[in-house]
Amino acid sequence: MKAVIQNEFGDASVLTYTDVAFPKIGKNEVLIKVAYTSVNYADIKKRRGNKGKGNFPLMLGLDVAGTIEEVSPKSNFSKGERVIAFPKDGAYAEYVVANEQLVFKIPDSLSFEQAASMPTVSILSYMVLYEIGQVQKPDTIVIHSAAGGVGSMLVQLAKLAGVQKIIGTVGNLDKENYVKTLGANVVCTYDTFVEEVLKETNNFGANIIFDSVAGEVTGKSLECLALYGTLVQIGNSSGKAGTFKTSDVHSSCRNIKGFSLGTTRKHYPERLAPVAEKVLELFVAKKVTLPVARVFNLSDIALAHKLVESRNYEGKVLIEV
Asked: Domain Enoyl reductase (ER), which positions (predicted)?
């Protein structure tokens, strides 16, 4: 079968479209014929070698939408069912294997393209908004990288939850209208968000800040986080770790929470099914959506990675297999 692998870390040129061995399923696993996968920023970091050592040949990709092709004995799934899934050994391939706990059925009314845009960013966003951030309607919240996949979903979910004030940050104000269309009240850049947040809150600061950027943005976020506020750390797309001091939190009664969907998939996969069900209901009811910036063929994966790295897009970048 066709797949994309890499044999070394590096730029997009290390991604190779080639033939690989057909995967085999084990106990409690299913084989999925992939219709679409997506490019997440975690793929970029892993390709570069920013996420630890690589076991080469390495296949990237976190999620897929497709059709069940083969099941193991006593499976809860049947051949031909439409699903989204988190495969166990990468997603950039015609066929992938996934543990049944990380496979979720989708209704016929949801297109594969829309379904493929949602697994990683939507499930992550729902969990950090409700379970980790525990947002309330009177809150003022800040969503960093608001035009990206996670940011786009967080803005919509927060708006749907009735959050009083949603402030989104972007690298370029060309994305301001897009983020406001999703539901943000205020959109600003990373250079100005501290002043904007303090102005919008009469110097009290934001109740919750969702930080997927880290680096300098983390320190700046603490400059405009309210007393008893929560900084939710969900990534470091800047490539740099954010830092803080214990004195930043104890006397102000603020707290910092971290969350990783990858860690949760590995250690507590059973937490995902209820969330996937809720998110799918929202998509089917068209209460939320994820704009697809562009769809590439699997053979053009390098071009897709370059687009994601450029950050010159809004929503999700998909791969048609």
From this structure: 10-319
Phi then psi for residue 232, to 5 deg, are -100, 115
CA distance 145 to 167: 11
Among residues 160, 37, 8, 159, which one has the least CA distance to residue 96?
37
pLDDT exceeds cutoff 90 at 162? yes
178-225 pLDDT tens trace: 999 999 999 999 999 999 999 999 999 999 999 999 999 999 999 999
DSSP-derived secondary structure for 100-120: GGGEEE--TTS-HHHHHTSHH
Tokens of 162: 């009735």
36 and 320 Cβ atoms separated by less than 8 Å: yes
Residue 16: in which H helix or E strand, if any?
strand 16-19
Show the domains of the chain with their CATH numbers. Answer: 2-117+290-320 (3.90.180.10), 121-262 (3.40.50.720)
Q: Give the total residue count for the chain.
A: 321
57 preceded by cis ω (within 30°)? yes
Rounded to 10 degrees, the C-alpha dihedral 255/220/308/54 comes to: -60
Looking at residue 21, the DSSP 8-state letter turns out to be P
Q: What is the C-alpha separation between 292 and 316, in angstroms, rounded?
A: 5
DSSP H helices in the chain = 41-48, 112-116, 119-126, 149-160, 176-182, 193-200, 216-223, 261-267, 272-284, 301-310
Inter-residue contact 163 to 188 (CB < 8 Å)? no
3-state SS class at 209: strand
d(CA 247, CA 249) in angstroms, rounded, equals 5
